[in-house]
Amino acid sequence: MSTVFDAQQQLANIDAIMRETERMAQTLHDWPESYWKRQTYCPDWTASDAVAHLITGADFYAQVVDSGRRGHPQPPWGLQDVSKYRQTRIEIGQTFIEAGSSTLIDGFEREAAKLHDVFLSLEEADLDQAAWHPRGLIPLGCWIGMRLNEVVVHGWDIRQPHEAQAGLSPQALPAMGSVLPEMQLQFLSQRVAEGLDGVHLIHASDIAWAFEIRGQTVTYRAEAPTQSDACVHTDIESLVLLTMGRADLDAKRQTGDFTLSGDIDKGNRLCDLLFRTF
């Protein structure tokens, strides 16, 4: 699996995380108490659940990125049994929820600030080191984009059922475009199947990249090739939502926001791997 990404861009995305975090924090401060019980896009999650997830996510990220940077990748919260990770995270989040909205807001701001400090301490030489994740070891540089994605997408989850035209934060979209190849490479490397050999071009708004698949090996190509076996054409916002399981591919096709060219069969099979509804 090729993980060669732009280190300077990864570090630059730390500022985008802080901007989106501050934007969400202000929104939380402005909420009436009733908003905390509103349903989100995620089944069975209220707004309180989503914010608690972001709190525990920041705590989790800060711990594993720090241990990974020191060359000793390990699970968070002193866990040795990996199977306990998810349950522990849920239990910690539930403690915040039960304490009420003020504690949720304070926790969101406090844990986000701690993670920001950890990210700011990273240097380019650190980014190829790896941190523990339930899916396996992930390079530190990719964790920056993962947190940006988490904040932006869960912010959308909170708003989507209550806004007729809910969209992703427009200020975050340029940074999100730089993060998408990292997310997609992770997904493809875990899900790749036989019969997809070739070069698959992803064209989103005014940027493009490609994945070359040979058997079970997926290689990221930052420079979009002039020729490909199959090509996806869409916009950045649609691609984020599709990749994160928040959009229906058939609906995007019907509106003209998504098209395929080249080997349509291969393109469709790639879509089946990349775009899985939440």
Range of helix content:
40-55%
Strand element count: 7
**Could you tell me the strand content as a percent range?**
5-15%
Instruction: Please report the first level of CATH classification, the CATH class of the largest domain.
Output: Mainly Alpha
The second-level CATH architecture of the largest domain is Up-down Bundle
User: Cα-atom Rg, whole angstroms?
Assistant: 19 Å
Point out poorly predicted stretches.
Answer: none
Enumerate how many helices there are, as a single number: 9
* CATH H-level superfamily of the largest domain: dinb family like domain
Largest sheet: 5 strands, mixed
Give the strand order, joined by hyphens, for the main sheet: 5-4-3-6-7
**How would you spell out the order of helices and strands?**
HHHHEEHHEEEEHHEH
Strand pairing plus helix content: what structural class? alpha+beta
Distance between the termini: 25 Å
Q: Give the rounded overall mean pLDDT.
A: 95
Could you name the CATH topology of the largest domain? Four Helix Bundle (Hemerythrin (Met), subunit A)
Salient structural properties:
9 helices; alpha+beta; globular; Nonspecific Lipid-transfer Protein, Chain A; 5-stranded mixed beta sheet; 12% strand
Write the layout of secondary structure elements.
Layout: H1 7-30, H2 47-69, H3 85-99, H4 101-120, E1 130-131, E2 138-139, H5 140-159, H6 173-191, E3 198-204, E4 207-214, E5 217-221, E6 230-234, H7 236-243, H8 249-255, E7 258-262, H9 264-274
Parallel strand pairs: 3-6
Antiparallel strand pairs: 1-2, 3-4, 4-5, 6-7
Helix pairs in contact: 1-4, 1-5, 2-3, 2-4, 2-5, 5-6, 6-7
